[in-house]
Amino acid sequence: METEAFTSLMTSLVRDDDNRLSPGDVSTALALVINRYNADRPRRLTQDVEVGEAMVLQTPDQWTNKRSSILSIEAPIGRNPPSYVIEDYFYVYDLPDGDVELRLLAGVVGVGELVRVRYTASHADPLTFDEDDCEALACLGAAILCDQVAALYGHDTDTTVQADSVQHNDKGRNFAARARDYRARYESKFGKPTSTNAASAVARIPSPSRTGMRNR
Questions:
Q1: What are 118-145's pLDDT values in tens digits?
Q2: 47-102: pLDDT as tens digits
Q3: CB count in 10 Å sphere of residue 144
Q4: Which of 22, 25, 9, 15 is closest to 171 using CA atoms?
Q5: Which of 5, 142, 165, 204 is found 20 to 30 A from 80 (Cα to Cα)?
Q6: Would you give the end-to-end CA distance of the chain in angstroms?
Q7: pLDDT tens digits, residue range 199-216?
Q8: HSE toward the beta carbon, residue 131, CA cutoff 13 A
Q9: How far is CA 171 from CA 57, 155, 164, 184, 197, in A?
Q10: How many CB atoms lie within 10 A of CB 91?
């Protein structure tokens, strides 16, 4: 979905009739939606890459350091059924400069060969959102914005006369309730946030008797 269309959908759910939100508020909400979506459902891409010297793989085009992870490596490409490198035989290696290398253990394939890497990649804007997820994502963005409007009305309550204070308090409670409802809609599809970090892989040294390949 185009960014403008998504933000329009997101803000239409808020119904900010008093225009309390700024364009910056909407941009911040969109950034938070993208971050949450990257944690809950990153992109899954496939690319053929070359095995370089020291068994270092060419980095896939959409790879993001500290966020992307390897899902599988097919080698050799094109077997039926496909042949996959055992997880113990590939890993992500952190370099001192903050970069990473995707490495295979020696003997899995030869230098110069192509392998097929399936990996996770980050969303950068709504253009890569799954169409079936857009409604839930818009609800998450609306929840963030409704929370902000509720907080603004709460602040007004502390600085206005009694009659206005009651009205603003009611509006604040209304927006807070809608924020909870919208967030529940998102979490009914994606679940609550967890502390699991799937952006890195751990290398385990295999026993000499294993071949490094498996079939599916």
A1: 999 999 999 999 999 999 999 999 999 9
A2: 999 999 999 999 999 999 989 999 999 999 999 999 999 999 999 999 999 999 99
A3: 23
A4: 15
A5: 204
A6: 35
A7: 333 333 333 334 455 665
A8: 0
A9: 56, 12, 11, 20, 38
A10: 19
What span, in angstroms and rounded, lies between the C-alpha atoms of 67 and 45? Answer: 14
Q: Which amino acid is at 64?
A: T
Q: What type of residue is 69? A: S
Q: How far is CA 65 from CA 34, 102, 161, 192, in A?
A: 17, 11, 53, 25
